[in-house]
Amino acid sequence: MMIFRDILGYLNGKKFHNGLLVDIPYSDLMFRNNYLLNISKEKKILHVGFVDHLQLIDKKIATNNWLHNKLVKVSKKCIGVDINKEGVEYLQKKYKIENIFALDILNDEFPSEIANEQYDYLLLPDVIEHIGNPVLFLSKMKKRFPNVNRFVITTPNALRLDNIKYAFKSKECINTDHRYWFTPYTLSKILIDSGYELHNILFAEHASRLSRRKIIKNILIKKYPMLRDTIVIEAQ
Question: Deepest of 8, 50, 112, 208, by most Cβ within 10 A of its Cβ?
């Protein structure tokens, strides 16, 4: 789904509008993990922030719902990098996971396994909302990884249907480590500010399938992509 051509002047700051209406074309329903797995098939992948929440790891691995394991199985090569040293060491010790590294990806020297490889994709799935300064982070990422062909960023969608539902109850439901909510435009804006060229934007459900009990939600998210849980952007 391409929306950038008509609004690039606004994204790069050359034009201004105080109430810009951005048209979002329709796209078929997709699921975040399925999308990431499909683009990773037989590709070389660098998975940043792969640990997930340490409190959830055992359950996700037991139920075959841990994204990194799935990426390893479908990709040609998959390297995991995370600043969470405790989580990396736990996975190495308990599950004998290979090709994973505890690194400050913006400042630490890269091991040869990372520095000497050319990657098809660098995946940042649901990471950017945890970062205190996303423009600084993304800018440094681009400079540090000239050996990456394309970056794929996913993040919770501020316009998701569940947020609207909770707003009617005067509540916000949020992961307490999150620092930002992003819309399609604002996520695109920080990527442009960080020096990226935008290629594609999509909307996905975070879950791997629809719940049969949520009939009304299923109808709405199929018809209106912007009500889906997750924004996916490909950039270079």
Answer: 50
The answer to whether residue 21 is domain-embedded is: no
Inside any domain, residue 124: yes
pLDDT tens digits for range 190-213: 999 999 999 999 999 998 888 888
The distance of Cα 14 from the centroid of its chain, to the nearest Å, equals 27
Task: Note the pTM of the prediction, 2 decimals.
Answer: 0.93
Total domains, the chain? 1
Does some domain include residue 20?
A: no
